[in-house]
Amino acid sequence: MDHIPYRPERVPLLECERRGEAALARNDGRRSVRFFSDTPVPRPLVELAIRSASTAPSGAHRQPWTFVAVSNAEVKRRIREAAEAEERSFYEERAPEDWLEALQPFGTTWQKPFLEVAPWIVVLFAQKYGLDADGNKVKHYYVSESCGIAAGLFVSTLHEMGLSTLTHTPSPMGFLTEVLGRPAHERPYILFPVGFAADDATVPALGRKPLEAVSEFIE
Fold it and tell me: Are residues 59 and 140 in contact, defined by beta-carbon separation less than 8 angstroms?
């Protein structure tokens, strides 16, 4: 593989810190949203977020992801109905008590109206393996890790543009493969409703763990 020069901008340390503080301030203002406006979101904005997500590093640069973006009202309705059926079964029959107890402060239920209100549903599918031009399998590496990083960049880019989302993982998610007609080598990874937050949206009053609770430095 050919290599090309890479010369990222080198800035003074004080500017590095300023940029880091600005990024922290922006990211610290991001919240998961369950109350969306039905204000349309132009497709080019969703495309930008997907392109940004696809800059994520991945094992052997396989880029083992597919983002399926849905604005069609009928398809969104089918996704909501299938998601709520799985979620209702989970909440009422399969969820362990400690998980329900952990969710209780957030007030979440099996009902997911935001799946129809948000202008877009974007489903990230993880490719268990790839296919070459002749239909032969191409091995992928570190698929979950790669898709996780891509998902983070997707969320961050949406927030940077002033859009909101939620990482939704109904259990199980196999219905998304059927509803969206995806091939056998892909599995649903995360579902993102995407749109502007509703004017009267609220979020839980949460704090974040301090640095010392999430890090350790060995110098």
Answer: yes
Q: Is the pTM above the cut of 0.70?
A: yes
Exposed/middle/buried for residue 48 (C-beta within 10 Å: 0-12, 13-18, 19+): middle
Asked if 186 and 218 count as a contact pair (C-beta separation under 8 A), the reply is no
* 105: in domain: yes
Q: How far is CA 57 from CA 19, 61, 152, 181, in A?
A: 22, 7, 12, 27
Residue 212 belongs to a domain: no
- Count CB neighbours of 3 within 10 A: 5
Q: In what order do the strands lie in the sheet with 65-70?
A: 65-70, 120-127, 186-195, 164-165
Please give the distance of CA 178 from its chain centroid, rounded to a whole number. 20
Number of domains in the chain: 1
CA torsion, ordered 47, 72, 195, 152, to nearest 10 deg:
-50
Residue 158 lies in a domain: yes
Its sign, for the CA torsion 128, 132, 137, 141, is: negative
Q: Give tens-digit pLDDT for 87-128.
A: 999 888 888 999 888 888 888 889 999 999 999 999 999 999
